[in-house]
């Protein structure tokens, strides 16, 4: 392991120094330390970070003379990800690579666990939209398998939000709402 690290019982923290001098902490289970440490490279971060979203992933690069560089994401290594599957960070913290926070989901299903409404949302609530030319009225819907399920029109935005949360828990098994409903 070329990174500094600290073993704290069942959890190991791997330190990643950024170019700007700041330091990030990546969490893994201590049981996975040997696997992660066996990779002959320094772990870095790759991804994007802005006001709304932080998608930074612990990434390593391998290089063999005469071959292309290969990128390896720590969470995929830990979960031994198979083709056709994404690794979902359940709590949305992409630097928390403990097994209790990771799960393999079919490609395309990972979007079910998206944390917030899109940037263009007029209400800030996923699946709730204002009705044009009708102030104070909202439409609620939920997208499942490429189809939109209409949930109704509401005059109370909180009731519309509740309808969307219930629909997501029912129809989207990898969503945060489904996780909460099953606990």
UniProtKB/TrEMBL annotation:
Short name of any one Pfam family annotated for the protein: HNH_3
Name the UniProt record assigns to this protein: HNH nuclease domain-containing protein
InterPro entries the UniProt entry points to: His-Me_finger_sf, HNH_nuc
Residue ranges constituting the HNH nuclease domain according to the UniProt record: 75-106
């Amino acid at each position: 392991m070329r990174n500094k690290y600290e073993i704290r019982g069942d959890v190991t923290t791997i330190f990643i120094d950024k170019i700007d001098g700041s330091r990030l902490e990546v969490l893994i289970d201590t049981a996975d330390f040997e696997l992660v440490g066996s990779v002959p490279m320094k772990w870095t971060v790759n991804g994007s970070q802005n006001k709304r979203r932080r998608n930074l992933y612990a990434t390593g690069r391998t290089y063999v003379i005469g071959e292309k560089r290969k990128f390896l994401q720590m969470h995929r290594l830990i979960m031994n990800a198979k083709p056709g599957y994404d690794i979902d960070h359940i709590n949305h913290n992409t630097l928390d690579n403990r097994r209790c926070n990771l799960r393999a989901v079919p490609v395309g299903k990972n979007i079910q666990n998206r944390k917030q409404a899109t940037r263009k949302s007029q209400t800030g609530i996923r699946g709730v939209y204002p009705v044009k030319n009708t102030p104070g009225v909202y439409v609620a819907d939920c997208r499942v398998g490429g189809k939109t399920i209409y949930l109704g029109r509401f005059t109370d935005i909180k009731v519309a939000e509740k309808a969307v949360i219930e629909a997501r828990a029912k129809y989207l098994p990898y969503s945060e709402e489904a996780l909460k409903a099953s606990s």
